[in-house]
Amino acid sequence: MLFEHVIRGPTQSGKTTILLGFLERLHREGVPVLYVAFSVDQARYMRQRKTFVPCVSKFHLELVENHELRAIGVDDSERCSKDEIDFLRQRLTALPGPTQLLLVETT
């Protein structure tokens, strides 16, 4: 069962902070999560400076080997193609039990 949530707001309103806080809490509890950044540089920056949650860019989604992901957060989801978001939906929907897809959009 997939639960999908969209966090919308203006630039610099704390959307990414809310997303990371949610993913970090789940990660600390042992839930497999993933943060998806728009660019390779952003993913690298987030891994090194902002969070201990596993981070990848949208360009490396196929390389993620953890098939037990329970929650995926996508920052700047409006910059992702419909196919990329659908790929994540399908991946989470295929798993038994509840899963979550969290999308951050700038309005």
Task: Please give the count of helices.
Answer: 3
* β-strand amount: 25-35%
Q: Quick one: overall form? A: globular
Helix content: 25-40%
- Please give the domain count: 1
Gyration radius, rounded: 13 Å
Which residue ranges are poorly predicted, with pLDDT under 50 across at least 5 consecutive positions? none
Mind describing the biggest β-sheet? 5 strands, parallel
- CATH architecture heading: 3-Layer(aba) Sandwich
Q: Indicate the multimeric state.
A: single chain
The end-to-end span amounts to 28 Å
The fold-level CATH name is: Rossmann fold
Structural class: alpha/beta
Strand order of the largest sheet: 1-5-4-2-3
Number of strands: 5
SSE topology string: EHEHEEHE
Q: What is the name of the CATH superfamily? A: P-loop containing nucleotide triphosphate hydrolases
**Average pLDDT, all residues:** 91
- Assigned CATH class: Alpha Beta
Summary of the model, kept short:
35% of the residues lie in helices and 26% in strands. It is α/β, with parallel strands linked by helices and 107 residues long.
Task: Provide a descriptive summary of the structure in words.
This protein has 107 residues and is α/β, with parallel strands linked by helices. The protein has a single domain (2-106), classed as 3-Layer(aba) Sandwich (Rossmann fold), CATH 3.40.50.300. It has helices at 15-28, 40-50, 82-93; strands at residues 2-9, 33-37, 55-57, 71-74, 99-106. The radius of gyration is 13 Å and the shape is globular. The protein starts with a strand and ends with a strand.
